[in-house]
Description:
B: Formate dehydrogenase/DMSO reductase fold; 0% strand
Amino acid sequence: xxxxxxxxxxxxxxxxxxxxxxxxxxxxxxxxxxxxxxxxxxxxxxxxxxxxxxxxxxxxxxxxxxxxxxxxxxxxxxxxxxxxxxxxxxxxxxxxxxxxxxxxxxxxxxxxxxxxxxxxxxxxxxxxxxxxxxxxxxxxxxxxxxxxxxxxxxxxxxxxxxxxxxxxxxxxxxxxxxxxxxxxxxxxxxxxxxxxxxxxxxxxxxxxxxxxxxxxxxxxxxxxxxxxxxxxxxxxxxxxxxxxxxxxxxxxxxxxxxxxxxxxxxxxxxxxxxxxxxxxxxxxxxxxxxxxxxxxxxxxxxxxxxxxxxxxxxxxxxxxxxxxxxxxxxxxxxxxxxxxxxxxxxxxxxxxxxxxxxxxxxxxxxxxxxxxxxxxxxxxxxxxxxxxxxxxxxxxxxxxxxxxxxxxxxxxxxxxxxxxxxxxxxxxxxxxxxxxxxxxxxxxxxxxxxxxxxxxxxxxxxxxxxxxxxxxxxxxxxxxxxxxxxxxxxxxxxxxxxxxxxxxxxxxxxxxxxxxxxxxxxxxxxxxxxxxxxxxxxxxxxxxxxxxxxxxxxxxxxxxxxxxxxxxxxxxxxxxxxxxxxxxxxxxxxxxxxxxxxxxxxxxxxxxxxxxxxxxxxxxxxxxxxxxxxxxxxxxxxxxxxxxxxxxxxxxxxxxxxxxxxxxxxxxxxxxxxxxxxxxxxxxxxxxxxxxxxxxxxxxxxxxxxxxxxxxxxxxxxxxxxxxxxxxxxxxxxxxxxxxxxxxxxxx
Amino acid sequence: xxxxxxxxxxxxxxxxxxxxxxxxxxxxxxxxxxxxxxxxxxxxxxxxxxxxxxxxxxxxxxxxxxxxxxxxxxxxxxxxxxxxxxxxxxxxxxxxxxxxxxxxxxxxxxxxxxxxxxxxxxxxxxxxxxxxxxxxxxxxxxxxxxxxxxxxxxxxxxxxxxxxxxxxxxxxxxxxxxxxxxxxxxxxxxxxxxxxxxxxxxxxxxxxxxxxxxxxxxxxxxxxxxxxxxxxxxxxxxxxxxxxxxxxxxxxxxxxxxxxxxxxxxxxxxxxxxxxxxxxxxxxxxxxxxxxxxxxxxxxxxxxxxxxxxxxxxxxxxxxxxxxxxxxxxxxxxxxxxxxxxxxxxxxxxxxxxxxxxxxxxxxxxxxxxxxxxxxxxxxxxxxxxxxxxxxxxxxxxxxxxxxxxxxxxxxxxxxxxxxxxxxxxxxxxxxxxxxxxxxx
Amino acid sequence: xxxxxxxxxxxxxxxxxxxxxxxxxxxxxxxxxxxxxxxxxxxxxxxxxxxxxxxxxxxxxxxxxxxxxxxxxxxxxxxxxxxxxxxxxxxxxxxxxxxxxxxxxxxxxxxxxxxxxxxxxxxxxxxxxxxxxxxxxxxxxxxxxxxxxxxxxxxxxxxxxxxxxxxxxxxxxxxxxxxxxxxxxxxxxxxxxxxxxxxxxxxxxxxxxxxxxxxxxxxxxxxxxxxxxxxxxxxxxxxxxxxxxxxxxxx
Lengths: 748, 441, 251
């Protein structure tokens, strides 16, 4: 080895040193940050590491009110299961309910109160005290000036004692303006039930014990009323009994999820379902299949609705109508239900009333397998009176537009998305002096607010629920937080209670509680007092309360007062008529009827910010991450439209663009679009994706109930020449002769 | 050919050693290009893929195998060139193999190496590839010997080792020639490489015996290697792949592809290294005849595949065939048929068969067709398996295309290194084809 | 000599036990299944399935251990739609177990086809060999937008890139049930004590899970149902999932 001179030596040392330093820095930069282990010296109070704790609470992602059990580990929610104790879902849960964890841990949650700075849409954080003082003072001033009635509170479908809290608060403020608005609220169904059955709350549809389910567009397995319960019931109807297998018939313009499971799917014109029902009533009464004393009144009322006449209007063959009517009456107990386009045209109430009549004629009221009227909830009373139809909300919109609304508080509702622009809500909102949102997410409505007081998600909240539709006996579900609140948000109930204390006067007297948990517990003393069965929970209220918390639900499956039904009043029979559906737009320019439909994942758009649901292939089309327009394949061929071609859908109220999908089970004169995409806000998973069909609806209304006739808009389609290939998971959706499904005849 | 003058022994040494010992700028330019392309198109994309995940390629939930495996098979196929020419034709005593077998064996070796590289590129967690080797390990686990991929590992390793020994052993006398013709470091190195070869009768005898032994050993190895590689596909249930014809199909295709590869390499060597006196028409003629024979067998097997698929009468096979022949990749399929079944029929004509340029083009077309064939096997079978709702589609990504191009550069770089390290034409065997030395008058 | 041949015959099917300790089986009643896909989301939640994102879906690289396939029959207006949930069938003669060169997938003594993530080197041969296409590869290492990772199930590994994954019949739940049974002093897990996430969530009770070796279990009785069949049975994969055909009342 040659000798190294000093210069070279220093060079080597320097290079080596730099190299070592660089290596060290690189190593440090790639090393993961140290994570702390939980020291066992001081164990946390509310959990044992490694052991799961389960909390029972209520799912609030739709109005069914299923009970859920949430598995938590180390204070974090890991999995939502159905609560086996709960009579609505009996341990089962739907896709939307399972995705609730995406709501709790959503990256785009609002984490602190926000106040508008500058133009609408710009916010700066403020702290709770400041926010509550700001709002409380304003409300207090209004109350003092006896202008409490210019405070409006719009909530999503709230039930239980939180609803009572809101109501009490508003009453104490001096305002009658407290309404619930949900796109999915079946206003027409309530009106039809009132008309025919004299019932104010929804009955229990006993699909489980039925032999025949005749559904006019009701997507009871996907989105109608209480899909988990009805799916349970459906499973039992099919294969839960050894002596029979129930038959399901679905009549609708576009095959829904339920239609796919039906034994028979019949394509009728949108809005003609009520006419079909009347024709069936006609057949039943005419053919001597109904022998009740009011037979003649029915004969008279349904005189013009012969199968032949209706066949032309509904595009369903007369012999099919006759056959179905005979089948329905013969295979009892049977259920006739209506939803979808039957409940969303200008003749919605009348259509659903006619469908109700079918049940009456079949004699299945208050019998197993039929329509069982629900007893009144134990406590509190059902908030039916507050559930607004579209027409009722229109009154509010007019008040807002007229400048008569000083403060509008919104909670769990997104009308800017779910109302068609033709309603004028967004413009009216601009005239409200102060818009306050209690939402957890920056949705379209919240983005236009002046003050955001973010509430907890449902998994962090206290509350309770009395499911509607009920299950035939009183049930009350408790909602409790399953994790500590993640961010600087508050329970909606706590917000109201804090405001009450802020405002002062009689409010803290009427609402003396400071914590929502206390309010709830005190409220449940009413339930405790009205129990009939006292054996299960020993003596005192505290034991009852703890037992209810642990179980998540309380119910009493004993018969209370027998529910009677004395028949349909004669004047109601005479007044019963189903007008043909009316549509916005002329057939010449708008040859199709636009049928928006709810999906089991997104419902009215609320599920669009949950990534698991965006990634869930649509059950009928397998499309993810987008919206689409469904066109009958023969129609598409005529227009030269291929799958993925962007079409423009034009209605008298607007237009939108979306890629086309060739859907095999839709009428050639109908186009359909899923509701739920097309958000302009609502977080990274929902924003800027697809199109919202509600945006182009014309504001037709079912006069009898005030419900928005959301399937009464005609549309035209136009090829744009652009393409946006749909993201589907399906390859080829035909079995190509392969024995994959192996259908077999029933008699083997 | 009229002015062909048979070289003398000394000419042979001089001409061939010159290709090794004298390196002009043209070599360095070409070497620079191939190694740069290899780096940019093979190494860098691979590093990117290593970092990001195999998702950098175009495979997806249906077609989990893509060009990496189809290229792997192509390169294994190409590797059968040496075995056939060197081993089989040695056993049959063909004289015309002597000038070209060394390069063919080198092609084998480097094709195998490139193929092995493709296995590594293909793996999801290549840093654990050593788990597929049955060596004692702290986990106490053996690999799964029932797996056709493990047969692959065994077979290819054996083939690689055997081919390396084969080519090395056959080159020992030539290393001695290099030693004798050089000075300095090279002389010392080649003295080691040639094991002190002195050229005694005893040594020649031993070499001949050992060489023949290896030739006999390597032939069944070659057949088994590509049969085993075909069983990667044939042992699956995938319609269109699950056929017993796959083993003969792949072996035939391999020899076919390899022979075409030899024609290509011979053309280039002859041109670039001025070896016109050693690589002559007789070689081209015989290689052409081999090619036509193999092309006919290959066509026959393809017809069989179509026939058995149709005859089965099952929806699975029909759909697999339909997608292959008339689906998205139909142009590739028909291109493959043209290049591998129809174009080689031209070789029947002597005018084509004895034309260097035309045979060069045909050989390249054949190999393009064979590369396409491997791709079609992978790309048209997986998206059409059993459940129609799971049907899909596969298209290679930019990374895959780059790595494919890069693999040819890798092969070329290795080959360029080879021709400077070993005489690319076997000096002593060529001398055996010449007339014996005349005594000086 | 007979004993010797018997012993040698054992090696014909090494690793496949003739008699399983448990034989976990699932029945899926297609007459109950409504296609609602609650099972799909439940599986995603329980097993830390990644949120792959829109780009990966476009590239057909989704990871859904359980998917619902749909098949249309006929043309409008006489058109039918049928659903069939498709997940790993845990075949007793699994085509995917033989070809894995490193034995990262094998048949355990409970009749489950297991995937050992940390042994997998990503050759993806198993996915090629699977006729049901129920194996999914991690083409990348996926991440969760903070704080979605708080939801991850600590009982289930989060897979890195280069590793194959598939339905495990929620083996973490099976292990816990077996542990509990052991702690209780019982030797066997009782019917209904362990349900995979999908079975637990299904609103129509279409899926039933249990031990086929227990003659009293629901699944053992349902597996003998006249409507029972196995998908792609002719391939002799011997799946552990019995589908019950949907009844067609019109014959």
